[in-house]
């Protein structure tokens, strides 16, 4: 009897790990394929089309760095990374300058308006880029910003500000009100109370907002595709799929290396903060 | 002596505090509006006005070349409505969104449930499962393009290796209309599932443990607990997950654009990619805007659901 129940229990673990394993393989496979392609020699990459006994999932010939070398020396990849950093930094600064005061204000100052305005601002996060890129293209050309990184700096906060404001509003709400009131009783002005008492307690929240804004800039594709056409002004998300393909020739090794080096660090960074994003996002739905 | 001075100090302190508190609400509200203004301005000027401009453009003959345009009423809308490519794109948008979100919610519920069981290695598994959502879609879609390659598709190689595809049989993933659509749906599901899983996990963990335990003590069966306790409590969270999934999937053009550019023969266009092709590449802003505006009902629905969920949780709090 005991042996049977032990076997049943063991089988349950096997089933659990099997199910989890299938999901993990599906989730991770494209990344594994990027990794493998980035370092495979060309003959190892393409021989499978003619040689049917070729095993595609492993290195059949020793790995090579030639694709990576081509990527960094023969393509504008480094320029794209640099452009992405510049746009990302500018957008993060604008977002914080606007969203920090707004988030605090919604959490503390504007009373019963806070909730409604907060939801109102958050709803604009749902207005998709695909509805706005046409009017923006008009705005951008009226301002003379076509094919300029400034167009992206202007437009990206339209999606970073709403979410970040919502996120920071939740953070400020979670800090006990008494702390600021105590500071004001001790003679601080409200602004001094915010700077000296609230800000040190919201470092985690502000950091989350920064990561969020930056990773979103890194991931954005539609506006970049609409506004930027010169290869040397592209961000990494645009340059890799659009400009690494020369005519009909795909340098798959370099292409996958480019995708790997840009996407995995961002994916790791974003995943580490995912819980906070989800908590911020669903705050309205689960707080009851 | 000292006691009296102390009490006098306390009294004046209290009086000063009281007068300060009396004015504080007014000043706080003023300060609040000042701090809120930049955000409101940004949102109104760069989301609100462009939105109105999109509607205006959809009634006009605007082109990307010049800034002047004339109004043509509903002509753009009637033109696109009679256009077979648009009809296909509208159908595709509904199909992509419907099928992929159904798959996402079913698979994500299984995933979320698996991940609530404590097992060794759960943290790393959770982290790995999140990667598809967090990676930039333009870059991961390139990996998929390579996976679906017409000559070097690893899926085909694998199927052949296991004998599913015989010699001479070959699937042209992105070159055949039905397969291309399936390919796009697979990428959407792959990408959206982690997000839904985490939202559902947040929901599952918010169900109070004592409610579950009480139900077990009362002898409620597993399915009864799932249907009568978990589901109703999870509903607002599921609504949020589905809502975001629908909004992100139906309005996304990046996967379609990167995988097929709407081809073969315009068979995989969605509204967003068609709007991009006509409006930006074809420079016909009016028609592009008209096509994009067909996404508006989705947004309206999203807004209504969001407000409902928010209001309900306010009542509950």
How would you characterize this protein structure?
The complex is a heterodimer of chains A (288) and B (317). Helices cover 77% and strands 1% of the residues of chain A. In chain A, helix 1 (2-39) crosses helix 14 (252-272). Chain A has a two-stranded antiparallel sheet. Chain A has 288 residues and is mainly alpha-helical. Chain A contains 15 helices and two strands. The model of chain A has no long low-confidence stretch (mean pLDDT 87). Chain A has two domains: 2-64, no CATH class; 75-286, Orthogonal Bundle (MetI-like fold). In chain A, a hairpin with a 2-residue loop joins strand 1 (245-246) and strand 2. By secondary structure, chain B is mainly α. Chain B has one domain: MetI-like (MetI-like fold, Orthogonal Bundle). In chain B, helix 7 (177-206) packs across helix 9. The longest helix of chain B has 57 residues, at 2-58. The two termini of chain B are 51 Å apart. The mean pLDDT of chain B is 84. At the A-B interface, helix 1, helix 4, helix 5, helix 6 and helix 8 of A face helix 1, helix 3, helix 4, helix 5 and helix 6 of B. Chain A: Keywords: Cell membrane, Membrane, Transmembrane, Transmembrane helix, Transport. Chain A: Its main location: membrane. Chain A: Residues 81-273 form the ABC transmembrane type-1 domain.
Layout of helices and strands:
The complex is a heterodimer of chains A (288) and B (317).
Chain A (H helix, E strand, L loop, with lengths): L1 H38 L2 H5 L19 H9 L2 H33 L3 H11 L5 H14 L6 H7 L1 H18 L2 H9 L4 H12 L1 H17 L2 H6 L8 H8 L1 E2 L2 E2 L1 H21 L1 H13 L2
Antiparallel strand pairs in A: 1-2
Chain B lengths: L1 H57 L16 H7 L2 H33 L5 H13 L2 H11 L6 H8 L15 H30 L2 H9 L4 H29 L3 H6 L11 H11 L3 H9 L2 H21 L1
Helix pairs in contact in B: 1-12, 2-12, 3-7, 3-9, 4-7, 7-9, 9-13, 11-12
